[in-house]
Design a protein that fits this description.
Its main location: cytoplasm. The chain has six helices and two strands, in the order H-E-E-H-H-H-H-H. It has 199 residues and is mostly helical. The protein is elongated.
C-alpha cells in the first residue's frame, strides 16, 4: 500500500470499517451532512404538524368545556400555563305538545296560534332560566330580565289571541295558561273580578 492509497483509504482493523478521506468523491461525511439535513427538515415538519394538532385539540377541549362546564384532563398546557376559565353555555331545549302537532286540520288558524303559543312559552321559559343565572353583571342581569319580560308579554298576547279566536269559533277547549314565573307580575283580574261576575 502506497502513501497516496493510505491517505484515501484507512482501514480500522478493530471494527472492519473502511474510512474514506474527506477529499474522496463518495465521502461519508457528505452523505452524513445530507442525511442530517434531511432529518432536521423532517423533524421540523413533524414539530409544525404536532403544533397544529395541539391547537386543534385545544379548540376541541374548549368546546367540550363550554358544554360540560369543566376543562378536560387531557387539555394541552404549555409549561407554567394555567388552564383557561371557560363559561358553560346554557342551551335551551324545546319540547312541543305532540297533540298540537298532530291535530286535525279543522281550524288551521287556531292550530297555528296554539303552536306559536307553545313555542313562545318554551322561549319564555328559557329566557326566565337565563335571567335567574348566577354570577351575572348588573347590565347582563338587567338585560336578561328585560328580555324575560318581553317574552312573557308575547306569551300573554298569544294567549289573548287564542282566547279571542276560540270565542269567535265557539271552541270549548280550555285556554293554555302560562307557567308561574318568579318575576314580579301583577294579576289585576283577581277574586274581585270573579265576585263582580257572580253578582
Amino acid at each position: 500500500m502506497t502513501a497516496i492509497e493510505s491517505k484515501e483509504e484507512i482501514s480500522d482493523s478493530d471494527s472492519g470499517i473502511i474510512l474514506h478521506s474527506p477529499d474522496s468523491p463518495t465521502s461519508p461525511v457528505k452523505d452524513l451532512t445530507t442525511h442530517t439535513r434531511a432529518l432536521k427538515l423532517k423533524h421540523q415538519s413533524l414539530e409544525e404538524r404536532l403544533e397544529l394538532c395541539l391547537l386543534e385539540l385545544r379548540k376541541l377541549c374548549i368546546r367540550e368545556a363550554e358544554l360540560t362546564g369543566s376543562i378536560p384532563s387531557d387539555f394541552p398546557l404549555m409549561p407554567d400555563e394555567k388552564p383557561p376559565r371557560v363559561r358553560r353555555r346554557i342551551g335551551a331545549s324545546f319540547k312541543l305538545d305532540e297533540g298540537l302537532i298532530h291535530q286535525d286540520q279543522q281550524d288551521s288558524e287556531l292550530q297555528a296560534l296554539e303552536t306559536d303559543l307553545a313555542v313562545q312559552r318554551q322561549i319564555y321559559e328559557a329566557a326566565r332560566k337565563l335571567s335567574l343565572e348566577e354570577n351575572l353583571s348588573k347590565p347582563q342581569k338587567k338585560s336578561r330580565l328585560q328580555q324575560c319580560k318581553r317574552e312573557e308579554k308575547k306569551v300573554k298576547d298569544l294567549q289573548e289571541a287564542v282566547f279571542q279566536h276560540r270565542i269567535k269559533s265557539e271552541c270549548n277547549s280550555p285556554c293554555i295558561s302560562i307557567s308561574s314565573s318568579p318575576s314580579k307580575t301583577s294579576d289585576d283580574s283577581s277574586l274581585s273580578d270573579v265576585v263582580a261576575l257572580d253578582d
